[in-house]
Amino acid sequence: MPRAELTVTVPEGIWIGDVSRRFAADTFRVLTAFADAETGVGLLELDDGADSDAIRDAMTAHETIQDVTTLYDGEEDVLLQFETADPVLLLPLRESGVPLEFPFEIRDGAATWTLRAPSERLGALRDQFSAFGIDFTLERIHDEQYERDAPLTERQRDVLATAVAVGYYETPRDATLTDVADELGIAKSTCSETLHRAEATVIAEFAERADLLED
């Protein structure tokens, strides 16, 4: 199953984006969170170096926050429970059926997410991000089981997995070779060559395992 690593830009007006940008030097660690269509609830951990009182006050003052409760205030960290009336950051996950790995971190308005889901679910998540106006960057995508089994280089795996994620192999295609190259930030010619080598390796491996090759 593909494992994707994303950097998600939290939109303006969402409390955790606004507050984390205000306290840009601090790391906001979300231990767990869930949401329905109207409300989101979660646990937020702040490290000792953070000004937890000021952050808590900023959260409480934000128009989308309904409640903030301090669950633990220790020497090394602070644990807050929050409830928001605008859980838009989690809604693309909910609508696409993609589970999010916890904990995840947010720093200066950017969330770092790790996801494991079938490629069609990741494609649905991409569409939901677009529908909600949320920008993201695909940092890396790979198939952990395939990495153990297939003789591809790490670069070939990344290019092939990205092509799958953006819809290059859909019928009809949702993405072009240029789209794949742009997603990876590489030249189209480099993308084409790497993808061709990866495809050739995968096909040869499949043919051998399926006993399609004549002696």
What distance separates the N and C termini? Answer: 33 Å
Number of domains: 2
Report the oligomer: single chain
Classify the beta-strand content into a percent band.
25-35%
Radius of gyration: 21 Å
Mean pLDDT over the full residue set: 89
Please supply descriptive tags for the structure shown above.
215 residues, alpha+beta, Arc Repressor Mutant, subunit A, 2 domains, eight-stranded antiparallel beta sheet, 8 helices, elongated
Describe this structure in words.
An eight-stranded antiparallel beta sheet has the order 4-5-3-2-6-7-1-8. A hairpin with a 3-residue loop joins strand 4 (65-73) and strand 5 (77-84). Helix 6 (154-165) packs across helix 8 (188-209) and helix 7 (177-184) crosses helix 8. It starts with a strand and ends in a 6-residue tail after the last helix. The chain folds into two domains: 2-135, no CATH class; 150-209, Arc Repressor Mutant, subunit A, CATH 1.10.10. The longest helix has 22 residues, at 188-209. 40% of the residues lie in helices and 28% in strands. The chain has eight helices and eight strands. With 215 residues, it is α+β, with helices and mostly antiparallel strands.
